[in-house]
Design a protein that fits this description.
Helix content of chain A: 25-40%
Number of helices of chain A: 17
CATH superfamily of the largest domain in chain A: P-loop containing nucleotide triphosphate hydrolases
Largest sheet of chain B: none
Membrane topology (chain A): Peripheral membrane protein
Protein name (chain A): Quaternary amine transport ATP-binding protein
CATH architecture of the largest domain in chain A: 3-Layer(aba) Sandwich
Largest sheet of chain A: 6 strands, mixed
Structural class of chain B: mainly alpha
Number of strands of chain B: 0
Bound molecules: adenosine-5'-triphosphate, magnesium ion
CATH class of the largest domain in chain A: Alpha Beta
Shape of chain A: elongated
Subunit structure (chain A): The complex is composed of two ATP-binding proteins (OpuCA), two transmembrane proteins (OpuCB and OpuCD) and a solute-binding protein (OpuCC).
Oligomer: heterodimer
Distance between the termini of chain B: 53 Å
Catalytic activity (chain A): a quaternary ammonium(out) + ATP + H2O = a quaternary ammonium(in) + ADP + phosphate + H(+)
Organism (chain A): Halolactibacillus halophilus
Largest interface: A-B, 25 and 19 residues
């Protein structure tokens, strides 16, 4: 576990890059730092492997003050994917990937096996790429090498500074999946920097949104999506994603209060009359106190004209509380959804035309986003 | 035709003599350049790790200062200290070689992409490992090109070493002027040029070898 308590960073030129940062990176969690350019993401990351020192505050790794850990050993235990890739131009791809295992004096065969395995993981044929030099690879391929170089020595903590920025959408998705799988499987602690909110939402356990050297909000993707604390967070997440996350409005948004209902004590003829008059084939029946009892269908009513309403009420059609989620009805196979207050007082019926309209709108938006 | 025949005869009579001039020339040039390399390359590398900007600037200023003294004047200035002959010639040329070597080596190491240096640090190389495995190998082509250019200068300037009695191809030229012998003047000049071109060629090949297969 990595913990930052009131950490500040002031650069030599007096620039206050990080202001009172409080963060916890829990073991086995994928943490995403996100925010506008220059907000201090890379600075935060470099504090963690001591490429830069913080000005004040407290930074601990597994409870140990980071300043008490030998920086060389610390770095060999932390994978680091640098923002500018930074492959060694005079070394082959093999030597690049094997850098840290070699520093740790791994057995030659073990290194070779590991490198091949990693190359395959990122879809690069070992036969073809092992002996190439970085400049003989495309930008995206170089970036993949940058990523696996950080994984080679199987570090428990991996720092990744915009590791997928140069990749096409497909390889990007693939590597995101791979990363999530890796992290779940081998329990890695990952600190991941990105500019891409979709990427963050997809992979993060914890999202840390920063601005001007400060943490604006941190939490699970769900928390940020459903409870953005201010306008900046909302703007950064974006209207579309927020709406999608909110899902469908609650039942009350679709209530049709004009829908007819009839008291159970009324005559069946009267009920039929109302239904025909309002062109309804189903109607809620309420008791003397307006509490919902069940549904009367026009078909049953016409067929059993001599009966009383209370004999024909279908009590199996359940009513929804006004606070219930619309999804519940959408998921059921019912054709009518009576809506009631907490005390079962009848309010109205779900307006299915309106619901259909909203559903269509959402479908349009979603396909609009992906296309 | 007659001229060529006479020139061949000239060589037949003088070749031992000419080769000793040539050897002298090479010795002076290479001893100075080697000393200069031994001093400047580590110094320049050290300077890239130096935090003190003022000290760095002072070192460059000193090297630059020697460079500004006219060659003949520097030879003359060294006579009271080292007398005449081989030593003052080597010292003077050594001083001349300092700046170009220092500057190229420094610039070579300094020009390495900061991202690469940072990656090396982040992977957990120690400073010495980083220098040996990353920075120097990447900077070697730059350093070599500095050495090549400087060596060519020095070979050319060694021709002047004759004025303080150090010998070399300059002697041949001076003797030719003295005795009005065109063959001697021509041979001295031509050999100095050929020497410089040969060194350029050889170093050029080494340089390319060192920089093959990288970006
Ligand atoms: N060595 C330095 N000296 C002074 N200021 C610096 C230094 N390094 C970074 N900064 C400043 O600190 C701020 C944060 O930089 P940082 O690299 O952490 O941003 P970032 O969030 O990673 O941005 P990006 O998304 O563009 O990579 C920037 O305003 C930057 O100019
Ligand atoms: Mg950055």
């Amino acid at each position: 576990m990595i913990q930052l308590k009131n950490v500040n960073k002031v650069y030599e030129d007096g620039f206050h890059a990080l202001k009172n940062i409080n963060l916890t990176f829990e073991e086995g969690k994928l943490n995403v730092l996100i925010g506008p350019s220059g907000c201090g993401k890379t600075t935060t990351m470099k504090l963690l492997n001591r490429l830069i020192d913080y000005t004040d505050g407290e930074l601990t790794v597994d409870g140990k003050l980071i300043s008490d850990i030998n920086p060389i050993e610390l770095r060999r235990q932390m994978g680091y994917v640098i923002q500018s890739i930074g492959l060694f131009p005079h070394m082959t791809i093999f030597d690049n990937v094997a850098t840290v295992p070699k520093l740790l004096k791994w057995d030659k065969q073990k290194i070779s096996k590991k490198v091949d395995e990693l190359l395959k993981m990122v879809d690069l044929d070992p036969e073809m790429y092992r002996e190439r030099y970085p400049h003989e690879l495309s930008g995206g391929q170089q970036q993949r090498i940058g990523v696996i170089r950080a994984l080679a020595a199987e570090p428990k903590i991996i720092l990744m500074d915009e590791p997928f920025s140069a990749l096409d959408p497909i390889s990007r998705e693939q590597l995101q999946d791979e990363l999530v799988r890796l992290q779940k499987e081998i329990n890695k602690t990952i600190i991941f920097v990105t500019h891409d909110m979709d990427e963050a939402i997809k992979i993060a356990d914890q999202i840390i949104l920063m601005r001007d050297g400060e943490v604006v909000q941190k939490g699970s993707p769900h928390e940020l999506l459903t409870n953005p604390i201010n306008q900046f967070v909302e703007d950064f997440i974006g209207e579309d994603r927020l709406r999608q996350a909110r899902g469908l409005p609650p039942m009350t948004a679709f209530v049709n209060e004009d829908y007819p209902s009839v008291k159970v004590t009324a005559s069946l003829d009267a009920a039929i009359h109302v239904m025909v008059d309002k062109k309804k084939d189903q109607m809620p029946i309420v008791d003397a106190d307006d509490k919902y009892l069940g549904i009367l269908s026009l078909y049953d009513a016409v067929k059993n004209r001599d009966s009383e309403i209370k004999e024909l009420v279908d009590e199996s059609v359940i009513a929804y509380r006004e606070s219930a989620e619309v999804e519940k009805f959408v998921a059921s196979k019912e054709t009518i959804a009576p809506i009631v207050h907490e005390d079962m007082t009848f309010i109205g019926v779900l307006d299915q035309d309106q619901l259909l309209e909203v559903l269509h709108e959402q479908i349009d938006q979603k396909s609009g986003v992906t296309s | 035709m007659k001229l060529i025949q006479e020139y061949i005869e000239f060589w037949e009579i003088r070749y031992e003599n000419i080769f000793s001039y040539l050897l002298e020339h090479l010795t002076i040039a290479f001893v100075s350049i080697i000393f200069a390399i031994i001093i400047t390359v580590p110094l320049a590398i050290g300077m890239t790790k130096m935090k003190n900007e003022r000290l760095k600037q002072s070192i460059f200023n000193v090297a630059n200062f020697f460079q500004t003294i006219p060659t003949i004047a520097l030879f003359a200035l060294l006579i009271p200290i080292f007398g005449i002959g081989f030593t003052p010639a080597v010292v003077a040329l050594f001083l001349y070689a300092l700046l170009p070597l220092l500057r190229n080596t420094y610039a070579g190491v300094e020009s390495i992409d900061q991202g690469i240096v940072e990656a090396a640090k982040g992977m957990g190389y120690s400073t010495v490992q980083r220098l040996a495995k990353v920075e120097l190998p990447i900077a070697v082509p730059y350093i070599m090109s500095g050495i090549r250019i400087t060596t060519i200068y020095i070979i050319s300037w060694t021709t002047l070493a004759t004025v303080i009695g150090a010998g070399g191809l300059g002697d041949l030229v001076m003797a030719g002027i003295g005795s009005n012998n065109t063959f001697m003047i021509f041979t001295g000049t031509a050999l100095a040029i050929i020497l410089a071109l040969t060194v350029d060629l050889i170093f050029g090949i080494i340089e390319r070898r060192l920089s093959v297969s990288r970006g």
